[in-house]
Amino acid sequence: MKIMLKQSGFLWDKKVCVPATIADILVKQDPLFPAKGKVLVFYKGDQGKGILEFSLEEFAQLHRSVTPAVQLLLGSTLPERSKRKS
Predict the structure, then answer these.
(1) Using an 8 Å Cβ cutoff, are 18 and 5 in contact?
(2) What's the confidence (pLDDT) of residue 65?
(3) CA triplet 22, 19, 55: central angle to 5 degrees?
(4) Distance of CA 69 to the CA centre of its chain
(5) Strand-pair partners of 20
């Protein structure tokens, strides 16, 4: 995975591409307020590490946006599934 970071300086802005791998994914949910949950994605690379934090609504929207494209890409490369007879 590559993460684009924008570093701001006094007179300049610079975009940096940081190669990283996903180290862990954590889903946090409050038992009293289940709608206020969070999805935390921890990543680690040679130049640093960090956390991407999504609300449950943001993660659901990301999932809805990405799933059709991934299915299209994987569907063109995966062989047909055999149908089981009952």
Answers:
(1) yes
(2) 92
(3) 45
(4) 14
(5) 45
44-49 contacts at long range (C-beta below 8 A, 24 or more positions apart): 44/20, 45/3, 45/18, 45/19, 45/20, 45/21, 46/19, 47/16, 47/18, 48/18, 49/20, 49/23
Q: Which residue has the tokens 């990405």?
A: 66
- Rounded to whole angstroms, the Cα distance separating 17 from 37 reads 29
One-letter amino acid for residue 70 of the chain: V
For the segment 19-76, what is each residue's pLDDT rounded down to a tens digit? 889 999 999 988 888 888 999 999 998 877 889 999 999 999 999 999 888 888 887 6
Return the domain boundaries, the chain.
Answer: 2-77
Letter string b/e over residues 17-30, b meaning 16 or more CB atoms within 10 A of that residue's CB: ebebeeeeeeeeee
Check residue 83 and give its pLDDT.
Answer: 56
